Amino acid sequence: MTSVRDFLEGSPSARAVAGLDLGAGRSVTIWENAHDRIRYDAPEGHAFSLYLKGGTGTRRLDAGPETGRPGTVCILPEGQGSDWEITTPFRFVHLYIPDAPLRAAFADIHDRDSRLLDLSPATFAERPLLAAPLTALAQAACAEDVLKAEAAVADLVAHLGLRPVPLSGGLSPRVLRRIDDWIDSHLDANLSLADLAAVADLSPFHLHRMFRASRGMAPHAWILRKRIGRATAMLRTACPLIEIAVATGFSSQSHFTRAFRAQTGMTPTGYRRALTQ
User: Fold this and answer.
1) Cα separation values, 264 from 8, 45, 53, Å
2) pLDDT digits (tens, 9 = 90+) for 68-89
3) Would the pTM of this model clear 0.90, i.e. be above it?
4) From residue 86, how far is each of 35, 60, 83 by CA, in Å?
């Protein structure tokens, strides 16, 4: 599949003026475009958009005659196509985020089943609670400030709504909290699916399937998310990197560095340096 960013990169008119890699497939890009026609055909990953300047010459052809304007938000869910016509210059910021890390962040921040996440499409919507973190993301991209961007992503996810849907399968909140507590107290160990299954009193197969339904990602990816979260907190202290690696269950400092960079877009040293700037 092709992401919204890929479609824009293939346009002869769209121009990226700033960008920031946040790791785990997440990124922010500020675009300028004019006199273009572009279709996002079943895009991979979700995109959140905020119009920064202009936009009155931008229309979504498959959604009526309304045009964009500064401060409006678009939500482009994964797999849902859209067709756009641009007649006048405008500038906008996009946040790109794959489904798994978005649902995991939602489950973590809201302490809810990831399937309750409301990802209804929106076009030229007045959403101040989403516009504010998207504005911060644009500022972070211009300043290359990953820490500000991470805070803005968390703020955006915190303001995403819940949809009232009946849930079947998955794990109960009580079991999920028991698993999380066990993970938190064993992050320095080499954890296995069998360990988590024993905590939940389920077979490994059923634990994997139901955990993924509830959290939006597989258990091993959730554990990695927890390890990186613990590491970012420890990087705010003077603790040596090798001690942080050991305390968060990585086999070596180099393994820790590779995993941290893949998940955050920065090395541990770079992250620690950014904290002091």
Assistant:
1) 24, 17, 29
2) 999 999 999 999 999 999 999 9
3) yes
4) 5, 9, 10
